């Protein structure tokens, strides 16, 4: 439950509010997750006046401002596979409000966008400090991070091949298994899987694509829950990775 609302106009002011001792204060992106009913009283720092909704391409990298909405990213993005992952993340109405950083912080293992950005080796700029953290390090550590941090930017490469495939109960449902594959001009290939657990999983980061299917099969060999058995997920993960590699690489 939101009991206190702040809308700072500078990053310094935002960080001061987030660092207050004794008051649980968190950043408010689009608010679609934070506005859900919760018994915990929280104070929020709305990021919308900070000018973090930027998008810039520099040195073959895309710099995505933390408060850019999913729809703004979708409108800019030209890669059909990345467009598909963004569309798969949220419905049209939610995409108008939900931000890229908020989506990554709130993501569970079924998040198509977090899976896609994990394959793309996304880097997060985090304040305070000049820290840059890989999404791969950030996702499993989120819950243990000290409150008060603020993601300002997400950086992904813009010159590489990318593919995204998924299986779900319906085309609009979140994935039971999804696979995202990224390949750099050097041949470096990263494979991320989603659809299970508390965060997407990096199945492979290698100098070439050989072994990607086997890596996906191994990565999900214990991925059983109420939606699917581990045997099913493991087999589908390998098939989806094969489909990714055949379609775009
Ligand atoms: C009807 C409905 C359906 C939904 N369905 C799904 C679903 O199927 N799957 C799903 O995963 N989610 C779902 N959600 C949740 C929500 O839409 C997503 O998690 C959303 O992408 C969160 O983005 P946001 O910008 O609204 O985040 P917010 O609600 O603003 O914040 C989410 C979290 O991120 C933190 N945060 C936000 N910005 C920053 C930042 N810059 N730096 C550090 N921390 C930050 C917040 O403090 C909070 O902990 C649904 C929500 C609604 C209303």
How does this model look, in words?
The protein is 31% helix and 27% strand. β10 (177-183) and β11 (189-194) form a beta hairpin. The chain has 9 helices and 12 strands. The longest helix has 19 residues, at 230-248. The radius of gyration is 18 Å and the shape is globular. A 5-stranded antiparallel β-sheet has the order 4-5-8-6-7. The protein has 249 residues and is an alpha+beta fold. It folds into 3 domains: 2-46, no CATH class; 55-157, Uridine Diphospho-n-acetylenolpyruvylglucosamine Reductase, domain 3, CATH 3.30.465.10; 161-248, CO dehydrogenase flavoprotein, C-terminal domain (Enolase-like, domain 1). It binds flavin-adenine dinucleotide.
